[in-house]
């Protein structure tokens, strides 16, 4: 075998090892990302529960103010002009 063939075989083997290590590292990174996203989902779902409970009274207050405003507007329409 030539020195060139030996060098190419060694280079191919070295690249194979590096690519295997790189693939394993990418697998670990994706696994860690999955855990982080699961934790983020849990945090967001915990935050969503109290927020939903607070939206109800806020919507009720908004509806009351809207009804008061529409009643005032209706009163202006039916008010006699003098």
Please provide a written account of the structure.
This protein folds into two domains: 1-50; 55-81. The longest helix has 76 residues, at 3-78. The protein has 82 residues and is mostly helical. The chain is built from one helix and no strands. It has one helix at 3-78. The mean pLDDT is 85. It is rod-shaped and about 110 Å long.
Summary?
With 82 residues, the protein is mainly α. It contains one helix and no strands.
Radius of gyration: 34 Å
Helix content: over 70%
Number of domains: 2
| Order of helical and strand elements | H
- The SS-based structural class is mainly alpha
Shape, principal axes of CA atoms: rod-shaped
Compute the number of strand runs. Answer: 0
Number of helices: 1
> Major β-sheet, in short?
none
Distance between the termini: 114 Å
The percent range for strand residues is: under 5%
Segments where pLDDT lies below 50 for 5+ residues?
A: none
Overall residue-averaged pLDDT value: 85
Write the layout of secondary structure elements.
Blueprint: H1 3-78
Q: Which descriptors apply to this entry?
A:
single chain; 82 residues; mainly alpha; 1 helix
């Amino acid at each position: 075998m030539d020195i060139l063939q030996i060098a190419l075989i060694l280079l191919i083997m070295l690249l194979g090892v590096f690519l295997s290590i790189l693939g394993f590292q990418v697998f670990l990174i994706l696994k860690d990302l999955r855990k982080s996203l699961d934790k983020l989902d849990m945090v967001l779902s915990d935050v969503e529960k109290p927020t939903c409970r607070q939206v109800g009274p806020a919507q009720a207050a908004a509806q009351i103010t809207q009804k008061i405003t529409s009643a005032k507007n209706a009163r202006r329409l039916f008010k006699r002009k003098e």
